[in-house]
């Protein structure tokens, strides 16, 4: 990955460089050849006047003066000065051109740009005018497309290309170093994360990675740390649960065995009262095993709810009635006024479990003289049910965790109340299955309130999402 990233950076640099050089080259060539063409035309425009001046100031075609004019001619330009009758008087060529031509003829190995092939020529006939009118004609032949011929221009062009080449090499060098450094910087936190993930996979759940940035990699590191943290918590909960479940199973089993031994030894009579106690213990075991099974199935997503139209006020009323004897026996007061029927789409069995668990918790965690109140508020699209108690409340630090399976706040107290930490996990799963929401508010020492919002129609809720 590091290598691939580095090579991609490098490829981008090379492509950018290539395109920059090509475009600079193109623009430069064009500008430069335009400049050369312009200067050729300017020189040619001034030529008749210069020749005329030269002739008249000396009274003849003076070689010195002609030589200085020839020197100023653009390379590649040939001028024949003729009498108006057509007879050639002399030919003008930039002497530099002749010199360079000879140099390359002598094979001195110096190519000053003269060995080019001129495919197209342009020609012009200029009249050289004196006081008595046209006294000579200059026939000019020059390359249609100006090329770099002049050594000064030539060295200017090569200086430009040289600096372009040096800049390109520098960009390539700095770019390669930067891309090597950037790809390393990007990859090394990922490599650290991979190592940490491998360690977590091997069971070292304490593994954490340092978060050094706030970008996507930093967010990934934070998410990884949270995941490892959660795995650690889940692992602790699982261990705790195994210990608790062993305890939960052993207590009723020990009690049943003691009763049976007492019956066998004739110490206790197998009467209705004692058999009821055994039956209660068996029910506790059965309840525990069905809680476990339901939670497991719900968490695997395999719970197949049987949705029908359920009268929720009737369902809550029945659940309350089931628990009323226990609540009264404990000396708690109950506030529940059965409202008019409200039908919602739901699974009757699961919803009963949900409200039973909430009410049973309220009962378990409230001491006499306390109050448990249930309120139902129907809305056009959903129904809100809240179960409030004036019990022991839930410590702030436990609030976000109570819906985790096997989580129990204040373990010693929960053991007394005989919980396993499954009830609320199941409540959460059932609420989600019904596309509802669940909220808890609690103050330690004052009480708790669980509020459930259930849609009247599940399909509509799904469509809206
Ligand atoms: P449990 O079987 O222990 O009751 P739950 O999942 O039903 O398991 O509840 C998890 C924990 O949340 C409980 O152990 C208890 O500490 C806390 N809790 C739940 N309901 C209440 C409540 N009404 N009042 C105080 N604490 C509660």
TrEMBL record:
InterPro entries recorded: HAMP_dom, HATPase_C_sf, HATPase_dom, His_kinase_dom, HisK_dim/P_dom, HisK_dim/P_sf, HssS/ArlS-like, Sig_transdc_His_kin-like_C
Membrane topology designation: Multi-pass membrane protein
TM region positions: 159-182
Presence of the UniProt keyword Transferase in the record: yes
Cited Pfam families: HAMP, HATPase_c, HisKA
Gene3D superfamilies in alphabetical order: 1.10.287.130, 6.10.340.10, Histidine kinase-like ATPase, C-terminal domain (3.30.565.10)
EC number of this enzyme: 2.7.13.3
SUPFAM superfamilies assigned to the protein according to its UniProt record, in alphabetical order: ATPase domain of HSP90 chaperone/DNA topoisomerase II/histidine kinase (SSF55874), HAMP domain-like (SSF158472), Homodimeric domain of signal transducing histidine kinase (SSF47384)
Annotated ranges, domain Histidine kinase: 244-458
Chain ranges of the HAMP domain: 184-236
Keywords recorded for this protein, A-Z: ATP-binding, Cell membrane, Kinase, Membrane, Nucleotide-binding, Phosphoprotein, Transferase, Transmembrane, Transmembrane helix, Two-component regulatory system
GO CC terms, sorted: plasma membrane
Subcellular location: Cell membrane
PANTHER family to which the protein is assigned, alphabetical: SENSOR HISTIDINE KINASE CPXA (PTHR45528)
Name of the protein in question: histidine kinase
Taxonomic source organism: Desulfitobacterium dichloroeliminans (strain LMG P-21439 / DCA1)
């Amino acid at each position: 990955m590091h290598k691939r990233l580095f090579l991609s950076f490098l490829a981008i640099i090379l492509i950018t460089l290539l395109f920059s050089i090509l475009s600079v080259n193109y623009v430069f060539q064009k500008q430069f050849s335009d400049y050369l063409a312009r200067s050729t035309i300017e020189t040619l425009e001034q030529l008749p006047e210069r020749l005329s001046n030269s002739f008249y100031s000396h009274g003849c075609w003076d070689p010195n003066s002609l030589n200085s004019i020839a020197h100023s001619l653009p390379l590649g330009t040939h001028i024949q000065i003729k009498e108006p009758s057509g007879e050639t008087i002399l030919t003008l060529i930039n002497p530099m051109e002749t010199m360079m031509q000879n140099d390359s003829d002598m094979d001195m190995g110096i190519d000053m740009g003269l060995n080019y092939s001129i495919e197209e020529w342009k020609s012009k006939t200029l009249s050289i005018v004196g006081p008595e009118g046209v006294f000579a004609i200059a026939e000019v032949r020059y390359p249609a497309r100006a090329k770099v011929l002049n050594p000064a221009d030539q060295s200017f062009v090569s200086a430009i290309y040289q600096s372009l080449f040096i800049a390109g090499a520098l960009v390539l060098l700095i770019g390669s170093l930067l891309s090597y450094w950037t790809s390393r910087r990007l990859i090394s936190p990922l490599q650290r994360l991979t190592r940490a993930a491998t360690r977590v996979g091997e069971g070292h759940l304490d593994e954490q990675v340092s978060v050094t940035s706030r970008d996507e990699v930093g967010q990934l590191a934070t998410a990884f740390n949270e995941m490892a943290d959660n795995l650690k918590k889940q692992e602790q909960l699982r261990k705790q649960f195994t210990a608790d479940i062993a305890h939960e199973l052993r207590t009723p089993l020990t009690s049943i065995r003691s009763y049976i031994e007492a019956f066998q030894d004739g110490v206790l009579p197998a009467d209705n009262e004692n058999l009821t106690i055994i039956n209660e213990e068996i029910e506790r075991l059965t309840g525990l095993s069905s809680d476990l099974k339901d939670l497991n199935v719900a968490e695997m997503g395999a719970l197949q709810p049987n949705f029908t139209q359920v009268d929720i006020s009737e369902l809550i009323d029945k659940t309350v009635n089931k628990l009323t004897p226990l609540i009264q026996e404990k000396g708690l007061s109950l506030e529940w006024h059965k409202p008019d029927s409200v039908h919602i789409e739901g699974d009757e069995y699961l919803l009963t479990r949900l409200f039973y668990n909430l009410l049973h918790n309220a009962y378990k965690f409230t001491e006499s003289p306390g109050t448990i109140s249930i309120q139902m508020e129907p809305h056009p699209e959903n129904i809100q049910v809240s179960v409030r108690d004036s019990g022991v409340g839930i410590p702030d630090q436990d609030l976000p965790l109570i819906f985790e399976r096997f989580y129990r706040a204040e373990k010693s107290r929960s053991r007394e109340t005989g919980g396993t930490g499954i009830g609320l996990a199941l409540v959460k799963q059932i609420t989600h299955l019904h596309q509802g929401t669940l909220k808890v508010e609690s103050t330690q020492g004052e009480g708790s309130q669980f509020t459930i919002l259930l849609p009247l129609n599940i399909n509509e809720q799904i469509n809206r999402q």
